[in-house]
Amino acid sequence: MRGVRIPFFFLLVGLACAAGLSQAPPSSPGPKLTVEDAIRLAQNNEPAFFAAAAESRVASLERADAKAGLLPSVVFHNQYLYTQASHAKSTGSQGIAGESLPVFIANNTVHEYTSQASINETLGLAGVAAARAASAKAARAQAEYEIARRGLLATVIGLFYNAHSSGEKLAVARRALDEANHFVEVTQEREQAGEAAHADVIKARLSQQERQRELADADLAKEKAYLELGVLLYPDPRTEVTLADEPAPAMLPERKDVEAAAQTNNPEIRSALASLQASQADTLTAWAGLLPDLALNYTYGIDAPQFASYGPDGVLNRGYSASATVDLPIWDWMTSERKVKEARIRAGASKVALSAAQRRLLADLAEFYHEAETAQQQLASLDASVDDAREALHLTNLRYVNGEGTVLDVVDAQSTLVTSENARADGLVRYHLALAQLETLTGRL
């Protein structure tokens, strides 16, 4: 009996577990991925954008360091210096009378204690030029970061809507295959009823086979589009993702608003302008090599044989010293003059680059806006084409069933509908990409 009860017990446990599993609620799918979610994920994963953001932060810190270099610095210096004694006694002209003199004549005494606060300040053109150069480089790094951000945004939008379009094209291919399968059944029924020739069945099957190949190609295209999007968003590009329903396309702003935004908020122009300012600061740095700097120092503390405010004989050890130093550049084999010429040459090249960036902005603005305008105008036409093609297919099917149309008419209407639906999906992608291109010039629209 004991050998029978144990299997029966395990059977009951298994049934209970199965019942529990059958009653567990099905796992709900994750939230759908929106364009904003895709942009946020891409900003965390795309290396070029991450590098541009890091460079912008580093340049901002370097600018703060350069400005801090214009301010006085304070150092609290502490040192104990021991020098071997020479066993010769001081007569008072060097050190304290009666004490042993150090072996090294450069040192003051055998035991020397230094504890001093030192304030240093350097006044000169070089520090000002360094601060200006750092500010210009920080502005350029910020502009390059904005260029990278807008470029990444355009890339994400392109990949997102391409993936969305591939899903729509896959659905179109499936509907087209269903229609082709149904049409094969219709031709076979008409052949059996003696109302159509066998050639109609063959033509319907050929169309069916073509739709099957189109479905396979559409499925492959969708997989590729999702993998390309996954590479940018996830550690594993094969991550399953469901895209959110496509919102209605945003309206295209007025031309004058776009032009105003491009003139005031274009990162390419800001980058070129910052490069010019950096070149001008380099010219100022080169001129600084021809001018003197004034170095100021103030020191307060002790530098004595005892670590105390007063010596054994009551002499005050604490005190201060101040210095002002000016070094006049006399001759450096024309190195500074050549550096000035080099900086001027680079500044001239930066001016040409700024002018080219301004011309490129005008051309891109006209091109991208016209592209978006054309794509927007065609959206209504594409929707009308799909409606007309669907109605034409319906009427052609009725005519064929009534013996008033041919199989070629039906196959042609099916192909026209597929082409129209795919063109509408491509038109939406084109319009979104055109808006994304304007984003690279003007900022978020």
What report would you give on this structure?
The chain has about 450 residues and is α+β, with helices and mostly antiparallel strands. The protein has 2 domains: about 30-70 and about 125-290 and about 330-440, Outer membrane efflux proteins (OEP) (Up-down Bundle); about 75-125 and about 290-330, Outer membrane efflux proteins (OEP) (Single Sheet). About 65% of the residues lie in helices and about 10% in strands. α4 (about 125-190) packs antiparallel against α5 (about 200-235). The longest helix has about 70 residues, at about 125-190. It is elongated and about 140 Å long.
Mean of all residue-level pLDDT scores: 87
Q: Largest sheet at a glance?
A: 4 strands, antiparallel
Oligomeric state, counting identical vs distinct chains: single chain
**Overall number of domains:** 2
CATH architecture of the largest domain: Up-down Bundle
Secondary structure tally: strands: 6
| Number of helical elements | 9
Unreliable sequence segments = 1-29
Shape: elongated
Q: Considering the protein shown, what is the CATH homologous superfamily of the largest domain? A: Outer membrane efflux proteins (OEP)
Structural class based on helices, strands and sheet pairing: alpha+beta
Distance between the termini: 80 Å
Helix share bin:
55-70%
Strand content: 5-15%
Assigned CATH class of the largest domain? Mainly Alpha
> What order do the strands of the largest sheet run in, or round the barrel if closed?
1-4-5-6
Order of helices and strands: HHHEEEEHHHHEEHH
CATH topology of the largest domain: Outer membrane efflux proteins (OEP)
